[in-house]
Amino acid sequence: MDVDGDGTARVGLCVSAGHALQSALARLTWLIGVERTGMNALRVGIIGSGGMARAHANVLENTADARVVAVASRNAETGQSLADDHGATFYPNSRDAMRRDDIDGVIICTHNDSHGEIAQDALTHGKHVLTEYPLARSIQEGEDTLSLAASEGLVLRVTHSEVTSAGHLALREAVANSGDLMLYAFHRLTPGRGARPEILLNLPVSGPPAHFFIYHIYAAVDLFGPAEWVEASAQYEGLREGGRYDCFVNTMTVGFARGGLGTWSWAGGVATENADQHERIVLTDATLTREGGRWLRSTGDGTEDIATVDADLPSKHDLWVREALSGDNDQALVDGRVALDAIRVSLSAERAMNEGRRIEV
User: Residue 39: which pLDDT band, with cuts at 50, 70 and 90?
Assistant: First the structure.
């Protein structure tokens, strides 16, 4: 979704759907065709050494315009192993890696509570940034990080996939052709607790589920813009003094500034055999429903599939690398504002849970 509730999402609502889609595709096509003559490969440092760090490094291994030159991690064993696998230099902390002049950009794959701090350190040292979501653990930290990217003229991207998703582009067009938003509704119930519940189900480190499930919020913010207010509630079973817990329920209601409501409910680690997820968008002229990985558009005249846009879109890694090499951060800042508006929702929800009241965003 788009950050200031204004980037691409607002475009889709203010101009014709066809023009908005054409503009988005034109920009991505331009990035795909960026002239590479004379460009060196982007030299990348990986911050972190867990599963996501390894996944990013493996992707870059197959990216012609980028190579991994450094790995920084507090875990010397996994960090050194990842560095060895990619012929990179290992550092026991990210600050030492940031000071290398031959690193052009970093990918941040650490715990949620460190994303903003590490991103700011990287930007201060002239590095482009691709960070795992969420953008930051506090709204102020997110605002400062995005402002720093703008002032330094650097590319800051968060790993939300909607920007390079043909399915999301098609959904945006369908929304723009279906009237005004009345209700966005999302529900998820799962027995899962994550691969590392001691980190994920940890309020100080990962935030509440409304925050670590930020990717469920980003898409709605991209489509419907920023929130005006947030209400939320939470229940945690097995909650310990340090903030760890065993299972959870989070609920959240949002009033969008442009009109319409959004509701989210998450339940995790609960007694159920199979995960269950529903997503619906009720607009004045149609209802859009996600079923089995595809979107349907229903009106009084019947129901039809929302066809995926036929477009050769770059991956999020290719997009970041090409923007960094070209020095063009305009669209990254637009998308960054969406990521910022998304955490304004999730972190306002955390305040609403703690204070038991509506929070004005």
Answer: low
- Residue among 247, 281, 282, 277 at smallest CA distance from 265: 277
- Does CATH number 3.30.360.10 belong to domain 165-312+338-360? yes
**Location of each CATH 3.30.360.10 domain in the chain:** 165-312+338-360
* Topology of domain 8-162, CATH: Rossmann fold (3.40.50)
- pLDDT single digits (tens) 157-168: 999 999 999 999
Residue closest to 280 by CA, chosen among 264, 269, 267, 268: 264
Q: What is the dihedral of CA 205, 209, 215, 216, to 10 degrees?
A: -170
Per-residue b or e along 271-306, where b marks 16 or more CB atoms closer than 10 Å to that residue's CB: eeeeeeeebbbbbeebbbbbeeeebbbeeeeeeeeb
Sheet harboring 66-72: ordered strands across?
A: 89-91, 66-72, 42-47, 105-108, 128-131, 156-158
**Does pTM surpass 0.85?**
yes
Interval 193-239: pLDDT, tens: 888 999 999 999 999 999 999 999 999 999 999 999 999 999 999 99
Give the separation between CA 198 and CA 45, rounded to whole angstroms.
27
